[in-house]
Every structure is written in structure tokens, then in C-alpha cells.
Design a protein that fits this description.
This protein is an all-alpha fold and 229 residues long. 85% of the residues lie in helices and 0% in strands. It contains eight helices and no strands. The chain has helices at 2-44, 56-61, 63-91, 97-128, 136-148, 151-178, 183-198, 202-228. Helix 1 packs antiparallel against helix 3 (63-91), helix 4 runs antiparallel to helix 6 and helix 7 packs antiparallel against helix 8 (202-228). The longest helix has 43 residues, at 2-44.
């Protein structure tokens, strides 16, 4: 019986290892794509940060692109958060594991809220700036009203921002304690996240998003390497 158990162990372990490696590869992929889109969001979407609303001209000038960035950018960001959370959990298994788990859950919650909020923003401004739905004058008035009453979608986006900040800080501390990635990478991750919050639009927003993009892709890459060790 003992010999049988020893022989059976590698047979069951191999598929598990292969499955973990596949998931880590998928996580790296969605994190890489999500990081690129997050960086491009600042320059492809007028105004960048939706908390202050958007002018009629900004939203109507590239209405299809505006809608697509919010409608599809939200779900992609949610996948990005899931991939990053998975990578962190792969990297932090002992020291700092509790912080990593809490931080990862908060990142996933943030992604879900952003997906919901961004979808609402895309649809709302998409219809408001469609002259086939509303005459231009009425559309301008409606957008002005939206910008004066952004609470319908910021009530979703504000908690997501808080969850992202707290989750990122906890993940950073967990990675720092676990030493599963270079410590400078943990520092780059948190600094990049704070920069992207402070500067979120235009060319400056794109540059500010780069440190976070580099850090998150590197974290996912280290997680992928860990599964092949």
C-alpha cells in the first residue's frame, strides 16, 4: 500500500503543475494586455479620469472610440486585476500570505466595480452624444446635467479606487516581505500606481502609467517563472 501511494503521487502532481503553469501563462497574458490598455487609456479617452465628467465635444468627437474604451476597457481591467491577483498569490505563499490574500481580493473587487462603472459611463455618454437619439442642443444640456450629477457612476468608481489603493498597498507589502521579487520592483509597483492616480490624462498620464505597467507585467512574469521552477 505504501509503495502504491508513492508511485501515485507524481502522476497526480504533474497535471496540477501543468495546470498551474497554464494559469500563470494566461495571467501573464491578461496582465500584459491590460497594462498596455491602461496606459493607452489616458491618451485615447478624452479627459482620462471619469470622476470629473466629460465635455460634449470630447465625448462626441470620437464617440465610437469613447464608448469602446469604456465598454470593453472595464471588463479588461477586471481580467487584469484577476491575473495580477493570481500572480501575487503564486509568488507569496508563506511570509506575507495573509496580506497577499486580502490585497488580491480587494484588487478583484476593484476590477469588478470598475467594469460596472465604466460600462455605465460608456453607455450614458454614448447615447447622450448621439444626435440620432438627442438633438445636439438637448445633448449638450443632458451632458451638462450629467457632469453636474456624476454621483450615479462615481458611487461605483469611488469605492473601486479605494479598493485598488488599499489592495495595491497590501500586495506591495506582501511582495516586499516575501522577497519573491526584487524589492525595487515592489516599490516601483506602488509608486507607479500612485502616479497613475495623480496624473490620469493626456501624454503625461501615459508616461505616469508606464512604471505601473512595467511593474505589473514583471510581477506576472516572475509568477510564470515560479511555476516552471
Amino acid at each position: 500500500m505504501t509503495d502504491t501511494k508513492h508511485l501515485a503521487a507524481p502522476v497526480t502532481a504533474a497535471p496540477l503543475a501543468a495546470g498551474l503553469r497554464t494559469l500563470a501563462t494566461a495571467a501573464l497574458g491578461v496582465v500584459a494586455v491590460g497594462s498596455v490598455v491602461n496606459a493607452l487609456f489616458a491618451v485615447l479617452t478624452p479627459g482620462g479620469d471619469p470622476h470629473n465628467g466629460f465635455s460634449y465635444g470630447d465625448a462626441a468627437g470620437h464617440r465610437d472610440r469613447f464608448w469602446a474604451m469604456f465598454a470593453y476597457g472595464g471588463p479588461l481591467y477586471a481580467l487584469f486585476c484577476v491575473g495580477l491577483a493570481f500572480a501575487v498569490l503564486v509568488l507569496v505563499r508563506q511570509r506575507g500570505a495573509a496580506l497577499a490574500r486580502i490585497g488580491s481580493v480587494l484588487l478583484i473587487v476593484s476590477g469588478a466595480l470598475v467594469s460596472s462603472g465604466f460600462g455605465g459611463v460608456g453607455v450614458l455618454y454614448g447615447y447622450a452624444t448621439n444626435s440620432a437619439a438627442l438633438p445636439t442642443a438637448s445633448g449638450h444640456s443632458f451632458v451638462a446635467y450629467i457632469n453636474d450629477h456624476t454621483d450615479l457612476y462615481t458611487n461605483v468608481l469611488a469605492p473601486s479606487a479605494l479598493a485598488q489603493i488599499v489592495g495595491s498597498v497590501l500586495v506591495c507589502i506582501a511582495l516586499f516581505r516575501a522577497r519573491s521579487v526584487p524589492r525595487w520592483l515592489s516599490a516601483l509597483f506602488i509608486v507607479g500606481m500612485l502616479l497613475s492616480f495623480a496624473i490620469s490624462s493626456g501624454a503625461a498620464g501615459f508616461v505616469a502609467a508606464l512604471p505601473s505597467a512595467v511593474a505589473t507585467v514583471a510581477i506576472a512574469w516572475y509568477a510564470r517563472e515560479r511555476t516552471t521552477a
